[in-house]
Design goal:
Layout (H helix, E strand, L loop, with lengths): L1 H27 L11 E3 L5 E3 L22
Antiparallel strand pairs: 1-2
Length: about 70
């Protein structure tokens, strides 16, 4: 009986922590109209390309293909 109660309490604590983490992540998410954070990615050459390299120079479209790293 005590083991079942302890398991239930652990489940409730885990659920509480997950709920708090998800709400924190949601609060940090970008919204429509927000500025994109600066990031750098490796180019096909040996250099790195940063989003800030194009700031004010030309329009930038950031596109993420969901299936790029999946088998489907």
């Amino acid at each position: 009986m005590a083991m079942t109660r302890w398991t239930g309490m652990r489940f409730i604590m885990l659920l509480t922590v997950l709920t708090l983490l998800l709400s924190a992540v949601h609060a940090l998410a970008l919204k429509v109209g927000d500025k994109a954070p600066d990031f750098s990615l490796p180019a096909t050459t040996a250099e790195k390309i940063s989003l800030s390299d194009y700031l004010g120079k030309k329009p930038v479209v950031v596109f993420f293909y969901i299936g790029a790293f999946t088998s489907g």
